[in-house]
């Protein structure tokens, strides 16, 4: 007797449909799994056998062979338990084999017959839907996650017994056994909950707020340099509150990563807010970029389409910071293993903060205790190539006590966000039909196409770059920032004032820079 069930495997961030083929025939009794199974699938045979036994179904003394096709796709995790059990039940005529046609199954089995949640249900169901499979059976706890996909019917039996009843029942009875959630319910349209941190509570620092507004509007990397206690961390946490909302496609991209990582918050099947991650400076290179024996996404990928805040930047391990070079440029992380090359998306907005020196008081020599060599070593801890990939660098001065005591009226995040959204609308129209979303996403060819400047502006840019000895990367990044500044002003043409302001934020390239 032969049966076939459709399931899926996750390889890196990619999802592949897997055909679970089950054959029950005469021979030496046993359950064998072939098709390049991973370590988890080697345990699956015992889990399936014991689960069926505890549901009152004893396997006959026959030879059961399970093939996970195609064999070249790596299989990991315990999500094949339910498909294998379903294939065996179909071969034993415990469920109609026809009920498995055009159906997708995934789930882990407990020894008591319960069906437990697994990682990656969202990308799996989306992959099944793209293949035209519109009936998905997943663990009950994963149903909200699967129901995000439009046009797909998602059912979630809690136990193997419920699954058997569901597969043997008619259409009306099925809805009573496993009431389906509305497929594709649009959680995306729920009202956004903005972060509690608000620029209204930040006194002074108008220049820094301006830089962060430009960063939010164009998705440009930022470095804030200043003494401790000047509000660098607080302003970084205010940044998500002024950023444009996630588009539906961006939301699904981010949710896929969190689903595969097993980090979707309970009861939140779809990430609709831009992520904000702030790892401690003791983080390892592998934790930041991803990796491990079985590669999983790191913090850089979890911050995809959101903000990655690195506080006390020079305190991070230098090798860890050097790992940012390629992701900041290509927005993708590639991890090579003997089993293959894994690619994880990493398009995040890097916001970094640093002191002037280790004690934090430089250039106030009345308070700074660092020697010149110590200051030089501290500045050298940030790799030059990483600094070259930062578009905006701003000094964060101490706020006068009078400003704090008076409590002058400050602009709230909501008002700043209005300007950012207007600039974002201009970018949406400009880049319609292209993979570019923000000005910061433009490559060199796109910069030359969308950031054209006049003869006067060209002469200004030439003088600046010759005097500051800027790199080709800095040239393109400066034009991208100038394009965003023009968008914030509602102007289609880039003027000399926009270029001058953009160049002013590249203090990392000046010989007299405080850091870099």
What is the CA-CA span between the terminal residues? 70 Å
CATH architecture label name of the largest domain = 3-Layer(aba) Sandwich
Major pleated sheet: 5 strands, parallel
CATH fourth-tier homologous superfamily of the largest domain: P-loop containing nucleotide triphosphate hydrolases
Give me the Rg, rounded. 28 Å
Q: If you consult CATH, what is the topology of the largest domain?
A: Rossmann fold
**Mean pLDDT level:** 89
What structural class do you assign from the helix and strand content? alpha/beta
Task: Explain the overall architecture.
There is one protein chain. By secondary structure, this protein is of the alpha/beta class. It has two domains: 2-185, Ribosomal Protein S5, domain 2, CATH 3.30.230.10; 199-432, P-loop containing nucleotide triphosphate hydrolases (Rossmann fold), CATH 3.40.50.300. It contains 21 helices and 18 strands. It has helices at 39-54, 81-91, 121-130, 143-146, 160-168, 171-177, 206-218, 232-238, 248-261, 285-289, 299-302, 318-322, 325-330, 372-380, 384-388, 401-406, 413-430, 444-450, 455-468, 472-488, 496-504; strands spanning 2-11, 14-25, 30-34, 63-69, 103-105, 108-109, 115-116, 135-137, 153-155, 222-225, 276-277, 290-291, 296-297, 307-310, 332-337, 340-345, 349-354, 392-395. The strands form six sheets. A five-stranded parallel sheet has the order 11-14-17-10-18. A four-stranded mixed sheet has the order 1-2-4-3. Strand 12 (290-291) and strand 13 (296-297) form a beta hairpin. Helix 7 (206-218) packs across helix 20 and helix 20 (472-488) packs across helix 21. Mean pLDDT is 89; it is low at 509-516.
């Amino acid at each position: 007797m032969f049966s076939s069930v459709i399931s899926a495997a996750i390889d890196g961030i990619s999802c592949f449909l897997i055909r679970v083929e089950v054959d029950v025939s005469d021979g030496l009794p046993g359950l064998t799994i072939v098709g390049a199974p991973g370590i988890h699938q080697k345990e699956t045979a015992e889990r399936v056998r014991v689960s069926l036994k505890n549901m009152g179904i004893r396997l006959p003394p026959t030879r059961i062979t399970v093939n996970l096709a195609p064999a070249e796709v790596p299989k990991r995790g315990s999500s094949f338990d339910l498909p294998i059990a379903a294939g065996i039940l179909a071969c034993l005529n415990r469920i109609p084999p026809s009920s498995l046609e055009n159906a997708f199954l995934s789930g882990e089995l407990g020894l008591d017959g319960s069906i437990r949640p697994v990682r990656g249900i969202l990308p799996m169901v989306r992959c099944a839907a793209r293949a035209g499979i519109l009936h998905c059976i997943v663990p009950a706890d994963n149903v909200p996650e699967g129901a995000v996909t439009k046009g797909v019917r998602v059912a979630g039996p809690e136990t193997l017994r419920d699954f058997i009843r569901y597969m043997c029942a008619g259409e009306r009875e099925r809805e009573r056994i496993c009431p389906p959630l509305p497929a594709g319910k649009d959680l995306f349209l729920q009202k956004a909950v903005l972060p509690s941190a608000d620029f209204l509570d930040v006194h002074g620092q108008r220049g820094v707020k301006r830089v962060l507004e430009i960063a939010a509007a164009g998705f440009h990397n930022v470095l804030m340099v200043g003494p401790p206690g000047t509000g660098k961390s607080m302003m970084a946490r205010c940044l998500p509150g002024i950023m444009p909302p996630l588009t539906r496609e961006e939301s699904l991209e981010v949710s896929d990563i969190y689903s595969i990582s097993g980090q979707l918050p309970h009861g939140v099947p779809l990430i609709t807010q831009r992520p904000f991650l702030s790892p401690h400076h003791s983080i390892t290179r592998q934790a930041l970029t991803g990796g491990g024996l079985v590669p999983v996404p790191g913090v850089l990928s979890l911050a995809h389409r959101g903000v990655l805040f690195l506080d006390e930047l020079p305190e991070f391990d230098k090798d860890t910071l050097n790992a940012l070079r390629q992701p900041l440029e290509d927005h993708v992380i590639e991890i090579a293993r003997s089993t293959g090359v894994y690619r994880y998306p990493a398009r995040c907005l890097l916001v970094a903060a640093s002191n002037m020196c280790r004690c934090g008081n430089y250039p106030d020599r009345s308070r700074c205790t660092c020697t010149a060599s110590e200051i030089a070593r501290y500045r050298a801890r940030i790799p030059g190539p990483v600094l070259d990939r930062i578009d905006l660098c701003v000094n964060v001065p101490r706020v006068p006590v009078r400003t704090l005591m008076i409590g002058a009226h400050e602009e709230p995040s909501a008002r700043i966000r209005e300007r950012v959204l207007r600039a974002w609308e201009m970018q949406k129209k400009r880049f319609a039909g292209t993979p570019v979303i923000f000005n910061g996403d433009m490559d060199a060819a796109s910069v030359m196409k969308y950031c054209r400047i006049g003869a006067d502006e060209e002469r200004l840019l030439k003088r600046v770059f010759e005097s500051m000895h800027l790199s080709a990367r800095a040239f393109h990044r400066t034009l991208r920032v100038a394009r965003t500044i023009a968008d914030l002003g509602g102007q289609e043409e880039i003027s000399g004032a926009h270029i001058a302001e953009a160049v002013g934020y590249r203090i990392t390239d000046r010989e007299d820079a405080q850091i870099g």
